[in-house]
Design a protein that fits this description.
By secondary structure, the chain is α+β, with helices and mostly antiparallel strands. The chain folds into two domains: about 300 residues, no CATH class; about 120 residues, no CATH class. Helix 6 packs antiparallel against helix 7.
């Protein structure tokens, strides 16, 4: 049966791709059109022509953390509702001293590994998301299936073929943006596959890019330092990633970082990121040395091909590595910190952190504080319901080739 599912899912996806540019119903574009146009103008060309077209099509819905406000459900105890990740620490610390600090690294960001995917310590990153719903044979969008559990939690499952992407950009010291990485998750019947696109997969390719862009690079002391560093075989620094706050769910990889020197040439870096085709980085190793491997470089500089303090080089690009954090989306906080059982669940559902169906105005005040804390403030977005992008559906009653909950080894415990 498992192999049958494998055959059905790609068939559906290929069929959808053939219809990609055809007539489709209107979608609510969450981001203002001028903002969408701005970000699309920054998109680099990737080695995947289908993805290039998809990101420019009317199926791509762009959003960021100001549009779908990051938050988590509090389905246990009383009151219940939806809480922004920017929740004031007093709401938690009043009853459990130090509880907020056990969950959050800073306001709005959970501790590693449930923070921001390799950019937890980067201060020059801008991230936008893209949600690409699949369509059926009639070119109708397949909705996200939504239902409510008996103990108050809302659950949802994305249909097979859904794609959720992250477009990661460096903000340079002059304020301009350039994309440095594109991440795409695609829903299959059994879970999510993960693809990552980067402009330079090996040091030698970056050297070639520098030499092509600056023929007399060897007369520039900063570029000499960069090229010499890239040619070194022993430039890696051990860098184990550890989670002190969620350590019982995450085994730290024995990773390393390759810290690039400063280019000291902002225009060159922009040119390198804007003119090179982004290639699939899955299973790619940037550099290996003394039994250690790194999968993308890092830097301490502000204007480089990756953001400052970038830590993603520690993580291999494969489904197992990418999903081992996401598989805990929606898990009860009490599984990690028993004293915080009554304070809800981790952000996300169906292994996606950035998306939820709740109406911002129902749980958030204009100043960013919680609204209706003493009442259940979870209201499903009207634009999602009216457009058919979200429907109240029980997956067990839907075709098992389109909807299926992803199994996990933890359970919801009513309080």
């Amino acid at each position: 049966m498992k192999s049958m599912h494998f055959l059905i899912s790609p068939f559906l996806f290929l069929f959808l791709s053939q219809k990609l540019m055809g007539a489709t119903p209107s979608l609510p574009q969450l981001m203002p059109p001028e903002q969408v146009a701005h970000y699309r103008a920054l998109l680099p060309k990737t080695s995947n022509e289908y993805l290039n077209q998809l990101l420019l099509s009317n199926r791509a819905i762009f959003y960021d953390a100001t549009i779908i406000i990051p938050g988590y459900q509090d389905s246990l105890g009383d009151p219940r509702g939806f809480r922004p990740n920017t929740i004031d620490r007093s709401f938690i610390n009043l009853a459990v001293p130090g509880g907020w600090e056990s969950l959050f690294a800073k306001k709005g960001v959970f501790h590693f590994p449930f923070g921001t995917g390799g950019v937890d310590h980067s201060d020059n990153v801008v991230k936008i998301n893209v949600w690409i719903p699949p369509t059926d044979s009639r070119q109708q969008f397949l909705p996200v299936a939504l239902w409510r559990a008996s103990f108050s939690r809302f659950h949802w499952v994305f249909p097979v073929g859904t794609q959720i992407g992250e477009i990661l950009m460096i903000q340079f010291t002059d304020g301009e943006l350039r994309v440095f990485e594109i991440r795409i998750k695609t829903r299959t019947l059994e879970g999510w596959t993960n693809d990552v696109y980067r402009p330079f997969l090996t040091p030698s390719r970056l050297i070639t890019g520098i030499e092509s862009a600056v023929p007399n690079w060897d007369q520039d002391t900063h570029l000499q330092k960069i090229v010499n560093h890239l040619k070194q075989a022993n430039s890696l620094s051990a860098y184990p990633m550890k989670s002190q706050h969620f350590s019982n769910t995450f085994s730290a990889p024995e990773g390393a970082l390759d810290v690039l020197p400063d280019f000291n040439n902002r225009s060159l870096v922009k040119k390198l990121l804007s003119t090179h085709v982004f290639e699939l980085a899955n299973h790619q190793v940037w550099r290996e040395s003394s039994g250690k491997g790194v999968h993308t470089p890092s830097t301490l500089a502000h204007d480089s091909i990756v953001p400052r303090n970038y830590e993603a080089g520690v993580f291999p690009i494969n489904d197992q590595s990418c999903n081992r954090c996401h598989e805990h989306a929606g898990r009860q906080i009490g599984d990690f910190h028993s004293a915080l059982l009554a304070y809800g669940e981790l952000w996300g559902e169906d292994q996606i952190f950035s998306w939820h169906p709740f109406e911002t105005q129902a749980f958030l005040k204009p100043d960013g504080s919680i609204k209706n804390f003493n009442d259940d403030n979870r209201r499903i977005r009207r634009d999602f319901l009216d457009s058919g992008l979200v429907e109240y559906l029980a997956p067990a009653e839907q075709p098992n080739t389109i909807y299926k909950m992803i199994p996990h080894d933890w359970k919801y415990t009513p309080f």
